[in-house]
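Let us practice reading a record.
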Amino acid sequence: MEKMYHIDFDDSHKALYAILPGDPGRVEKIASHLDNPRFFHQNREYTTWLGELSGKTVMVISTGMGGPSTAIAVEELYQTGVRNFIRVGTCGGMALPVTGGDVVIATGAIRMEGTTKEYVPIEFPAVANLDVTNALVEAAKKLGKKWHTGIVQCKDSFYGQHSPDRMPSGYELKDKWEAWKKAGCLASEMESSTLYIVSQILGARAGCVLNVVWNQEREKAGMSNPHCHDTEGAIKTSVEAIRILIRGEG
């Protein structure tokens, strides 16, 4: 096949499984947890390494920030043969029990972004694949991580969340934030709903595990609010989950 336009490679990699961080700078770190890690390609925001787990080729590729570049990555990776996707990223906690250093395994996402509206009407839910989610939970338990499962908010504007008062539409942003909290939303991030919707439409399996950096709601409430920028727990959870999925395919 010809090389895909944006990721700039074809199906020669033979990977059925892909780990998707947003940050290109995190790709090599994740790949170091695989057997025989090696650089594969780089184009635009898409930095790609390959490795093996349980004898199967596994890809690690960055998606950049937000829905549009994530959708492009999933679309083109699917055309090159990838069928299983796990996003590894960061998030800010919303529910008070969620603290910095925990991992959140997103069972579904609020579609507060624009990309997926060009795929399917907003009434259609953004939901993770059950097999992938179960593998992530099993992996987190095995690794002894403090984990949470539930709904996350997926947004387009980082500063809309953190500086709503200076936005002309801040009244809507703040009202919806309060609604998500009351409904039990665990955390906020920027890529999960796009990953879930695009994967659903393509017929791929997708899940998402997130490192909690901090929780602004705990800070507002005067509670302890540790900050954690170390993504190692979420990374190890994703890698172990892929081992579990490969074993299940056996």
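A brief commentary: The chain has a mean pLDDT of 97.
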